[in-house]
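fwd from M.: "can u put these together and see what the complex looks like"

so here's what she sent:
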Amino acid sequence: MSSSLFTQDARTTARNAAERRFRACGLAAIVLALAALVWLLISIFSAGAPAFRQAFMTFPVTLDEKALDKEGGRDPAKLSKVTTVSYAKLLALGLKAKAEDLGLETTGMKSKDFAKMISEESAASLRDRVLADPTLIGQTIEFTVLASGRVDGYYKGRVTMKTAVKDKNTSPEQLALADKLRAAGVLDIRFNWGFFTMPDASDKRPEAAGLGIAIVGSFLMMALVLVLSLPIGVAASVYLEEFAPKNRWTDLIEVNISNLAAVPSIVYGILGLSIFINFVGLPQSAPIVGGLVLTLMTLPRIIIPTRAALKAVPPSIRDAALGVGASPLQMVFHHVLPLAMPGILTGMIIGLAQALGESAPLLLIGMVAFVRDFPGGFFDPAAALPVQVYNWTVRGDPGFVERASGAIIVLLIFLLIMNAVAIVLRRRFERRW
Amino acid sequence: MNDMRLTERNVASDTAKMRARKVQVYYGDNHALKDVDVDILDKTVTAFIGPSGCGKSTFLRCLNRMNDTIAGCRVEGEITLEAENIYDRRVDPVQLRAKVGMVFQKPNPFPKSIYDNVAYGPRIHGLTRSKAELDERVEQSLRRAALWNEVKDRLLSPGTGLSGGQQQRLCIARAVATEPEVLLMDEPCSALDPIATAQVEELIDELRENFSVVIVTHSMQQAARVSQKTAFFHLGHLVEYGDTGQIFTNPRDPRTESYITGRIG
Ligand SMILES: Nc1ncnc2c1ncn2[C@@H]1O[C@H](COP(=O)(O)OP(=O)(O)OP(=O)(O)O)[C@@H](O)[C@H]1O
Ligand SMILES: [Mg+2]
């Protein structure tokens, strides 16, 4: 008599139990991974989100002729001798006048205290504006300034009345006045476009630090990596996969490409330093060197997935093409490459994304230098996004920690965009037949 | 095997289109073909029969040098196409394959539209001068492959979306479109129903007017129906080669006889 299907025998029960255990383990692993991801995102976004908002103050400033141009000749040479200190004084006076106009209480506030509420960066931008248009001297203009890092931090929770007591860069009175100015509409908190457009700022001015040069630098380097590594990587892969004889030499090359993909990225930095800077004599900190180093690093990481994509194209398609009399080159370009395209693009974008997030090799070729001027091309000094993150995290002012997290968010957004592009391109090239 | 038509078979031509002498093929250390001598006659259908793994496909692939693409495959001996050795160093296999077309054992359409599949050969060889001419060539090839009526309304849909048998006929149309001088067909009907098989056999018969056709088949009936010459392969040897009528009615070698009567396979 055969056993009933309604009762399970011992082997079946054991097998089912094993499957349940395996599923539970898999689920636990996924939950753990998701929890880690969520934790990471929460910590980055809570630390970095404030970087995208910034406290600004707008008030009239009288550009006193006596302070800026004693002789009244508007001689550019003489005007440019006037330092930011004089402009900072004018700004402080303007803010003080505005507060008094509004009838706000300013007891305990010296004019130095007013100056401390304003970012030092704003004096420099006022000076730039006057030098560009000397006719402004003698007039009173509405001017928008960055609030100092401490006032800004007060609205982001970094600075409190308590910490302000001991802080020589601010005082509870300043913060109290800031609150009143905010109520009066002089101080407001807005989206911080400057975070994307402004260059890095010195240690004491976190409120003025932006990613402008880092974004430009990273963009230049990525463009170079794309332009160099796509054709070289695809050509190398196609040659190795479709044309090269299979012998000991190609085996050796294959093993070495895999090894190169695993070489720590900082080694590429050392290589770049010795070859491109010391030997070829290219300038330090320049995107050209960064791009070349990242290209070297990215090439093996592109060749490997590209070869895998080429291998995945069924051999019968190659036979079909050769069978109707296509040359090997026609076979590759008409049939194999189009079919491998989705895989190649995915590998390409992943390689680029890794290059975008790479900081170690760039540190060695001087991309860590403090750069204030936007690069005019590949040979001018520039910064890079991941290096900027590193740069800001090692600075003392807590304002920079917030900037660093903000920069990480920008980096993540760029990576997301690149992945989205990869998905769109893959969809476009993927044939559903 | 007592097909009436066998007796009225006569070979249309006696000139050898392709000639193989002492052909040896090695896959690494595996000696897959030994001392094969065959003449493929012009305007004739030649059938290769034999048990699985005996080297039929291997020999077929020697005739258009598709074996070149297999790593470790070595061909010795001499194969000529119109008295020119195709393994000569001056021969470009690409040019050879345009003259000696091939239909593979497994259907392998390009992942492109039906139209593009058939038009590919004429396009890369520059066989047509205008779009209209190309359209015409595509239609004619699909008609010859007995596929036109089924696909004429969806020429732009993917070739891989066809059924297995339709795909095989598409591959035949693709091979025919380049008008090769010799057409090699490796089990072209193994995925076809009897109706399509009959149509393909008709096509083969029609192609005979202009080309040589070499067909590998596991169906004795098919070999008997379509071919004028038959070659029987066994374990890498060419056991017997002769007129189809003679092979099927009066085989000289006992191995041939046991195979066609179904005793070895
Ligand atoms: N690519 C290859 N690499 C190594 N050995 C091969 C290869 N192709 C075929 N062979 C060997 O060569 C011999 C002949 O194979 P072939 O494919 O020619 O047989 P066949 O007669 O076409 O068989 P079938 O009727 O099953 O298609 C077999 O022993 C096979 O193992
Ligand atoms: Mg075969």
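replying to her w this: The radius of gyration of chain B is 18 Å.
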